[in-house]
Here is the input.
Amino acid sequence: MSEKEYIVSLNKGVDYEAFNNEMIATTGAGDIPGRSVTVANARPSSQRNTHYSLTDAEAQALKNDPRVYGVTLLPENDPDLIIGRRAVQTGDFTKTTLDRGNFLNWGMRRMNAETNPYVESLVSGGYNYTLDGTGVDIVIQDSGIQADHPEFQDANGVSRVQEIDWTAESGISGMPSQSVNYYRDHDGHGTHVAGTAAGKTYGWAKNARIYSMKVAGLEGATDSGTGTSVTYVFDAIKEWHNSKPVDPATGAKRPTIVNMSWGYLRYYDSVTSMTYRGTTYTGGDIDTTAKRWAFGLPPTTIGFRYATNVRLASVDTDVEELIDAGVHVMIAAGNRSHKIDVPGGDDYDNVLVANTGSVEYNRGSSPSSINAHIVGNIDSAIDTGGLEQKASSSETGPGVSVYAPGTDIMSAMSTTNAFGATTLNNPYPANSSYLINNISGTSMASPQIAGMTALWLQLNPEATPAQALSFVNTISKSDQLFNPGTDTDYTNTRSLLGGNNRFAFNKFNSETQLTMGTVSGFDQSTPATYTLTASAASVNEGGSITFTLTTTNVTNGTAVGYIVSGIEAGDVNESLSGNFTVNANTASTTFTVINDLTTEGPQTMTLSLVGITESVAVTVNDTSLTPAVPTYTATPAADNIDEGSALTVNVTTINVPDETELYWTVSAPDEFAVTSGSFTINSNAGSFTVTPTADATTEGIETFSISIRTGSVSGPVVNTTDAITINDTSLNPPSATYTATPAADNVNEGSPLTINVATTNVSDATTLYWTVTNATDFATSSGSFTINSNAGSFTVTPTADTTTEGAETFQVQIRTGSVSGVIVETSSSITINDTSTTPAFTPDYTITVTNSGNSYNLSGTDRNGAVSGSQPTLAFNSGDLVRFTVDESTSSNHPFYIKTTQSTGTTNQVSGTVGAGTTTVDWTTATDGPGSYGYQCSIHLGMWNTITIS
Here is the structure.
């Protein structure tokens, strides 16, 4: 057997040991192989991912086991799978006009404000902050970190980068030893991301500990082989996190944040089919990038190949296990303009079938999880209407949880890098031996969320990943981003495509505390205190309660956040979260309890300070009584009725006040002239009548029901009658018939043919309409005629063209109403005799085309004389007839086209060619006229040269 190493990922909650025992047993049942399967890598740190040696057929069958989430090859063994960073270098900076100098990360200043403080690229004030990520660990899962960069030092000049041995710290047996060159970054991406998340100048968490998890494949061209395999980059972090001790400063384990500014793509060259929203499309429906883009597949290219997002079950399972262990995960959404949908969404199951395999192209790329922060990129340039906007390249849609600034972001850069940064052009302001740089992408947006979340976790070290995700999403601003499109406006790269309009916001930004660049610090020698009291121990519905915050050593203007729990949002007149603004060491807020009509019993309303262990509880007394529930019963006077006769419907009610107006509708509106109405209830009773129309059509017995509503004819239904029968008392009028008879069963091109129409039971002067079924062969393909004495006629004349196409057929259709009305008769087939002759194509020039080493070899003549060699230029005059004779091997492997513009695929063809892509390509140059054209292989962009038509 030809076996490969496959990763089998189990669904959450599956009994791992029982499944593994079935896999290694000598017999198997269902989709389990009927042999003892070898375990290629046990992955003891994972209860959901195990590596087995399987054949391709066994791997495919295992995907059908209901316990299995997915079966995938090792990512490094898939030739069409690429691991990439989610960033792009730019040379034009909108918020900062230079890539050097004392500029900061503009995302910190912007996310600190509820609305845009920028005027074009300028802004006043500094980055105000009260928190610095103390007590939080941030892992940068990337290309590495230049550990000695001064940006990662603390206030005493000591590096905060913890150069741990992941193999030793995780305790994973079989994990490869860590490279001696692990703590360096020859790409620069990881150093930049770390600076944004936790740099002392450019970052948020200025006192967090920083950890580097260098990922194999991201290290940089001059540093390959020094990173950790994707097989272990998640397990190692998880096991290290699980073994952390309790931090004595907080009484809780230090929170772990992991930033993942990378992802997987799949290359492809050609598309076989696309399944979009349940319908499969092939051929001409998807043969251009524009058509595929209309189905949500942007034409993203890397080099000469297309690329799209791809999800790997094994990687996503690792992410889920990391989150389940309590680790907070931030992931860059990606930079390919794709929509990311969520499970159950209209686009989630869209499938691309390409030459390299099938991909659900609207699910985003791995690593991914709906329980992680999936971060999109906000542009540094605003929309012309004044709102801010997502970057054109950023992924979008419901699967993006939040957006943060990611374009033109200044941060640290490693001295050896792939971004072209040098000490000459990009010196670190505080020490010119080190570098900074300005980069754009969702890679730069994700660490903004990682750093901002670290501030919240400094206050809430025991918070779960779900609580942190909810916090970031809840406090984000929902009216800041321009959203011009719908959920299907795929080609509008600014559209959110039905996704979340969430601009990240940092609420820990008190202007009275530390201000970067203006205040060096503040005196914490006298600690602040906070005490909450309530104006009463209980409050009745309809009453008010005041909560007072009393403090010591708190500066005037300080905002102290609070959250109210124990009641619903609709129970009080104020939001359940807000801020106390301290003045003279006191502040208060008042809530009025809504006096509702629902008896729900007493509730406990608790107001708690955010990040401070202080709360106060008040009992809300339920003083309401739930009103009695009304009932409605509709009873027809009979269970059947004749057409044209009235039927009375009696309605009885319970607990309905007098003079209450109710509404009725019938379920078969086509059978009634009056289909709805209203009536009044008095003494819990009322009635109305319905009358089915007495028509002239015998349609047999029909039924209807009647619905009673409390509010208008479209209000909620409170009662519906049983089915009531309509007795058919009408008789059908005699039916009309139509017969179309051609004067002959064939006709020459250019000759008229009379069609005689005979009818029965059709009134005199009735106008009928005709159309021919092969309209392209007729100058006049439709018309009308009049019936008198049940007869009429008209003529049709096929066009006398100059093209020899052989005999053709057509039919004539008769309609009662307009040329698009109901067809009542279709004639038999009539033959068009071909009397034309197509002029022969006699080339003025003939050129033979062969291939050698992905290059066209041409031989023959053009206007300048002999033509020969590899891909020469050609010249003809407008009006020349040119024939290209392509050998069969060349035409099948390098299809030959004449184009207006150099491009792959079949787009941009000239209009005057016949046989494009085959062994004989004829070109009537006069059709396209003078200009510059070219011959082109539809697969290889470099197989091209120009043709000049004079």
Q: What stands out?
A: The chain has six domains: 4-73, 82-518, 528-621, 631-727, 737-833, 845-949. The chain is about 10% helix and 35% strand. Confidence is low (pLDDT under 50) at residues 88-95, 510-525.
